[in-house]
Design a protein that fits this description.
Length: about 120
């Protein structure tokens, strides 16, 4: 199991930037694929980006270009740099830790952090 603590959300004007951080802890944290998802009321949670412990990123197509995910393995921390934010980026952003074995996968989630982009 992986424990996740997020920080960095808030209110920003359109065109602005925010950086989210998520500190992972637990015996399996170093092995997890860490990522960010977001959710707005009434919609499914969607992938923003994820990154392996080897530093390989994966982005949802709609997030490419404005968002950058990075990872500091020494700190077991994942970051999401969000630039040129738009009102439609307003959502609760959740940190995720995914562990894979064979065909199986387990997920742990942070508590979520609100990002609000004003127009």
């Amino acid at each position: 199991q992986v424990q996740l603590v997020e920080s960095g959300g808030g209110l920003v004007q359109a065109g602005g930037s925010l950086r989210l951080s998520c500190a992972a802890s637990g015996s399996r944290a170093a092995h997890a694929v860490l990522g960010w998802y977001r959710q707005v009321p009434g919609k499914q949670r969607e992938l923003v980006a994820s990154i392996t412990n080897g530093g390989n990123p994966n982005y949802a197509d709609s997030m490419k270009g404005r968002f950058t995910i990075s990872r500091d393995n020494a700190k077991n921390t994942v970051y999401l740099q969000m630039n040129n934010l738009k009102p439609e980026d307003t959502a609760v952003y959740y940190c995720n830790a995914a562990l894979y074995w064979g065909l199986g996968r387990s997920d742990d989630w942070g508590q979520g952090t609100q990002v609000t982009v004003s127009s």
